[in-house]
Amino acid sequence: MAEQVLSESAWEKFSSFVQRKIFRSYRARLNYQYKRGGWDWLAALDEMAHHAILGGYFRFNKKGGTLLDLGCGEGVLQDNIGHENYSYYIGVDLSDDAIRIANERRGNEKTFFYQGNMDKYVPPRKFDVIAINEALYFSEDPLKLLSRLEAYLETDGFFMISMVDKRGDHIWDVLNKHYAFLDENYVTNIKKITWVCRMLKRAA
Ligand SMILES: C[S@@+](CC[C@H](N)C(=O)[O-])C[C@H]1O[C@@H](n2cnc3c(N)ncnc32)[C@H](O)[C@@H]1O
Fold first, then answer.
1. pLDDT tens digits for 79-129?
2. Where are the alpha helices (DSSP H) in 63-149?
3. Which of 28, 162, 183, 198 could make a disulfide contact with 50, Cβ separation 3.0–4.6 Å?
4. The domain that contains 126 carries what CATH number?
5. Range of the domain at 54
């Protein structure tokens, strides 16, 4: 039995190596990083403030509502929103290992995490809020993504997005032409990293 586990593990390692190095698979690279704790910093103190702003947007406007969290990683945003403050939560991430960790740590009867590509993911229902927290840079076409997702927002629903300042500027420039910003906050941590957090009204 031990030998079987060992050989499975060796096979997994080999397969991961081939996917990452030969086929240049981004998904396999993310899995490798999550397995090795390479994204543990997402739950660190100096990341807390931008999660807290998005958590505040949700609680202030839609307490008890539903949330779709795209590019959710290990689901850290859920900690900030608080289990008692939502009725239904879906998180989606490209990394299988992020999703495994999220489900182990945060999954429950109303909180579900699924592997998926945000650019292709088809939500199973409408949500009060769609969050893209530190992940919109990874979309192939952020405006196209948000436009498609409008069909899955409740009538008075909104998007909430955070991105690191400057890194997200070119995306904000595009979104600014199509969406009204309902609120915005800039938050800077002790390392002098600044995040821009915004609430976006539905365009249609
Ligand atoms: C900086 S992390 C942010 C994670 C989480 N939102 C947080 O703030 O803790 C970016 C995440 O986007 C995910 N990601 C990258 N490309 C993606 C895609 N096309 N679809 C879904 N998730 C993606 C990565 O796996 C990673 O977990």
1. 999 999 999 999 999 999 999 999 999 999 999 999 999 999 999 999 999
2. 76-81, 96-106, 142-149
3. 162
4. 3.40.50.150
5. 43-201
